[in-house]
Amino acid sequence: MGFANKWENKDKDQGPGLFSRLRDTVRTPTPLKSQIEVANRQIRLLITQMDGAVNRIKQRDATIFRGVVTALAKHDNQHAAIYANELTEVRKMGKMVTQAQLALEQISLRLGTITDIGDIATTLAPAVSVIRGMKNTLSSALPEADREIGEISGLLSSVLIDAGTTGGLSLNFEVANEDALKVMEEASAVAEQRMKDSFPEIPVSVISEREPEDLSA
Length: 217
Known about the structure:
By secondary structure, the protein is an all-alpha fold. It has a single domain (32-210), classed as Ferritin (Up-down Bundle). Helix 3 (32-73) runs antiparallel to helix 6, helix 4 runs antiparallel to helix 5 (120-141) and helix 5 (120-141) packs antiparallel against helix 6 (146-167). It has helices at residues 3-7, 18-27, 32-73, 77-112, 120-141, 146-167, 173-198, 204-216. It is built from eight helices and no strands.
């Protein structure tokens, strides 16, 4: 099968009968365009799933922050510092999930711009690199998404390999990795700002209480 057909199956000669449809299901590879669309739908679902995770983190953050405030009201700086340490870890997780979500949104937008086989090399290579790195990062913060991320990575990798072997497209992995790093850096900067906008600052008195412990770590 020619690579153009692999991109988008436009064979008009096949009959509409049941046998033809069964034959196509068994013998005809899924066009690359359709595979990319499937991967993009999975990414959108994962982004929605991350919305739920971010909301849970916000709720957890609000609960712990109230613990900080309550402890400070009782002049219990020791427990306020314990709560603050826990709050720091929760916010690290929040930033991690938010950064991954923002990166996936960027990837989804890029996948939506692919209109022909020539776009595959420049779009999919950095996307695969970002998603593979994300899988390791999110394993602790969002273990329930591990399988979905693996499936998306595998599907896009398969399309990329098929494009390279069948279509003769050259893949510049150095450029792809640089592009992937840029996506993650931009997502990190936006995630940092979102965290500042969405979460109240830890009181200065608690930060001062934590400093000796941090210095001895």
